[in-house]
TrEMBL record, chain A:
This is Unannotated protein. It comes from freshwater metagenome. The lineage of its organism: unclassified sequences, metagenomes, ecological metagenomes.
UniProtKB/TrEMBL annotation, chain B:
SUPFAM superfamilies: DNA/RNA polymerases. This is Unannotated protein. Keywords: DNA damage. Signal peptide: none annotated. Pfam families: IMS.
Amino acid sequence: MARGALADNLTALAALAEKGVVSGAVARERTLPVLAPFVDLLPHGALQRGSVVGCHGVAGVSLAIALAAGPSAEGAWVGVAGLPGLGVAAAVELGVAADRLVLVNEPTGSGADGTRFDDARWAEVLAAMIDGFDVLVLGPGTERVRAGTARRLMARLQARGAVAIVVGAPDAGPFGTDLTLQADSSQWQGLGDGHGVARGRRSVVQVAGRRVPRPRRAPLWLPGADGCIATIEQSHGTVVPLRPTG
Amino acid sequence: MAGAHVPRLGVLWCPHWPVVVAGAVAGEPVAVVHANRVIAHSLAAAEAGITIGQRRREAQACCPSVRIEQHDPMRDARVFEQVVRAVGVRVPRLEVTEPGLLTFVARGPARYFGGEAAMAEMLVQTAADALGGTSLSGTSLGVGVADGRFAAVVAARRSSRAGRPLVIEAGQPTTAEFLSRLSVRWLSVVAGVPADVVHLLQRLGMQHLGAFAALPEADVLARFGHVGAFAHRLAGGGDDRLPGTIDPPAGMQVQQVFDEPVHHSDALVFVGRQLAEQLVGALAADGRVCTRLLVTAETEHGEQSERLWYRSSGLSAAAMVERVRWQLDAWAQHEALTAGVMMLRLDPIEVCGDDGVQLGLWGGRTQADEWAVRAVARLVAVAGEQQVLVPAAQGGRQPHDAYTWVPAVTADLLEPAERLAMPAGPWPGRLPSPSPALVHDPAAPLSVVDAAGQVVRVTARGGVSAPPVAVAVGGTVERVQSWAGPWPVEERWWDATRTRRIARFQLLTVSGRLLLAVVERGTWALAAEYA
């Protein structure tokens, strides 16, 4: 009984915060736009500047790129670190502007390639990226950054108003996330037993985090047949998450 | 007027230093490239026609046997430190202009060693001993003593060719006479005068510095502006400090005294960055930039490292940090330090007016673009040129073919149209979208087996020996849920050396991973993943 009332209050507070507590102008300045399928999923329908967003699950990389595509289309620069194999063709299909995409590639540490970045080097690299780019996509390569360094970097991120999108296993990296997006139950369409070709992936994206009192979820094409992200229209009503009882 | 004020300088020049560090032996063609351009080459390479500023490909076309080495200023500085230390014992207040080039005030040491010629001989011997067995790839060390930096550097480089030290008598007339017979190209090679100005002088018929120096000063200023006037002063053996060079007011130095001794050089460099930014900011407030910087570090036990650094175009914060790192690394490597560092100080010795760069008032650039371009420059300084990449379209059938990553320093970030113009297709055999989000280049090892545990083969008729059942990638084995393929591609069948016959598969595992696998000559590999 008591728990239900609390949850209702939290929901009401969240609704208030979304409607009027933060004025529209300030909210716009403090947010970065996202692609249409994310508008209903994210709190305020946008990415909060200074926040860290985690993207997990089998479709984590596509999810991160799709999140970065919204700001990128509006003129923001996207810096990628620790994700050496990022597919540019996929990023372009998802809506990232290739002319505002920069990748920092860590040396592999073998042969003439140079030594791998140590913690201080990572700190400098990420600090420079935070200063220069609005959106950072941080892959598993950045998981070796120490927790203390990561905290300092996140403070800088908040001061500068950039957004970090972290890809990888949940809780693997040193960056504490404000918001997590989990892309699970992926179903590839178009692939048969020795015939066909993958045409798209149905994936259910679940959003959770501090500002999200109840996890929200939506089925998305991630990516769809043309490589874009799209909402899957529901034919049988909305999915209602199970409520805890007792 | 000039003669009295121009300092008497000595210069020690190790020719082709980056090539020497790269381990070139006499007669071996070696070229060191930086951002795809040749910045240094060995004598043998020069004989084959390789010149500074050439593209890597052009150099390889001139001399197919040339060994190409990447530029590594860190390594150059580290190896040069042995020379610096040996010479530093004899000559105080050394200034490392760049790895391979030392400058010092000649007056004191010349008196001590009994004349400039004797000092020069002694320095050649000292430096040669310090280098020990290091092969100078067929060249010899050069020492030049002359009035002013320009004449001294030119003298040192000439002396390296002649094989004996070169001392130019003091006084403006003798300096001018020494320079008069030399090519005007020295102006751009040594003094940083823009190459197009020098080229223009040559097209106007002035091949030698003497001819240029003979022009009236006022006419040169009227025709070539301040750059020309500066070059003219150099050619005439005059004061070669940049216009507006002054000694900064006292108290501009910045230093950090640590509460706890610092043992880690990275931590010191980090502090050095803060100090450098502070110093550059303070100077910039006056519209000035530091050209000569004294970096001092001191340990708890009083061991001290002091170095002068010079850059004619002014030291940016990044350049200062780079020099701090060179100095600290060399110090820690060559001296067994007994304690941690307690103090780090940056002291501007010489500053001059900052010409700066004025951005256009309007245009397509936004604030975000400016920030990003600046961040890229910073990233290159921090992470290295080969590490900061931007996409470029190249077209192709494989997932890693459509776009490639190129170093950001070689690309124009604000004019990307040419870089991202996809070459006209069609690319028959290209997989339809969606494209894989993770591309493995080079392809990762992969093994695909059928129900009997045999590796699946692609038959000559484009079929499979048996349906794939399990796939092993990165140490895990997963069952295949569904699959499609093989899609054969035969690329460049007209070129016997570059031709490829491959077959591609999409494999969906039970855990939901969709892999793009390729088979080439019976070997499976993971080309990309739809992550």
